[in-house]
Amino acid sequence: MWSIHGFEGQLAVFNFEGSKHLLDIFPTPPNPDQVPNCDKNGVLGPLPGIIGSMMAMQVLKIITGLPVDSNQLTIIDTLNWQFSKLSF
């Protein structure tokens, strides 16, 4: 799973070898009126590439049998270039 908005991206590996599901951290979907819209708020061009490359690395790690970060949500703030990990 990945998500992008403005300067921020999020990624996590869900439902892999007994790891938790998206519904474990977000049990109810948000009201559609409260979900930010990229048409109005925008996303900087390089952000999808950064997050996409990070997700591709996770997929390659899964395919090759290397350890992946399970039950963790990684938040990338490209404005301040900070990375945070939240365990769930």
TrEMBL record:
Keyword Nucleotidyltransferase among UniProt keywords: yes
Entry annotated with the keyword Lyase: no
Domain THIF-type NAD/FAD binding fold: 4-85
Gene3D superfamilies with a match to the protein in the record: NAD(P)-binding Rossmann-like Domain
Extent of the signal sequence: none
Matches recorded under InterPro entries: ThiF_NAD_FAD-bd (IPR000594), Ubiquitin-activating_enz (IPR035985)
Any GO MF annotation of the entry: nucleotidyltransferase activity
Keywords assigned by UniProt, alphabetized: Nucleotidyltransferase, Transferase
Name the record gives this protein: Molybdopterin/thiamine biosynthesis adenylyltransferase
Lineage: Bacteria, Pseudomonadati, Bacteroidota, Sphingobacteriia, Sphingobacteriales
